[in-house]
Input
Amino acid sequence: GIQVEQSPPDLILQEGANSTLRCNFSDSVNNLQWFHQNPWGQLINLFYIPSGTKQNGRLSATTVATERYSLLYISSSQTTDSGVYFCAVEGHSGGYQKVTFGIGTKLQVIP
Amino acid sequence: KAGVTQTPRYLIKTRGQQVTLSCSPISGHRSVSWYQQTPGQGLQFLFEYFSETQRNKGNFPGRFSGRQFSNSRSEMNVSTLELGDSALYLCASSLAGDSYQPQHFGDGTRLSIL
Output
């Protein structure tokens, strides 16, 4: 199956700093999503981005499908950005969709 | 529009018992997927249902099963519970069909096995 690698595994930021999270995947994918899991365990869909660039407020994401990676940018970080960021890709397995998650990047934003 | 609803939120069981978890997808969503999240293994795909049919299955033993009803609501059943089944079980729904749609997650059911 598809392998998904996320880096860095852990990140500590001072409030107001910027950061870039990376997701590499081992095979071509049909789509890619970024999620944020808050400290209460809720998974929130940030971006659905099989290719190209999208922006939503302080967050933006870029996926270069031909080179098999995606980047999530967080600008002017806030303490509420703390949590785990997951990259999830969908490939084909036996003709059907199958979602594979990376292990996540744990982000802590300190005041 | 209401989000994905999972019940119950918390559950405590003992080894050998069985458990049924429920997931109500967003209205209009026909695909429901289930995931297990543990500190050691991360988020792992269990199975996906679409139009009452299991479309795909992850690498879990047969003790894990599921089904989907005509209204797209889904249930997941785990029989002969083991300590290692303690986890957060997440359900996600999407419009699905032939195009690829983003998934929306419920808040999960936290299952503890004693």
In short: The CA atoms of residues 16 and 80 of chain B lie 4 Å apart.
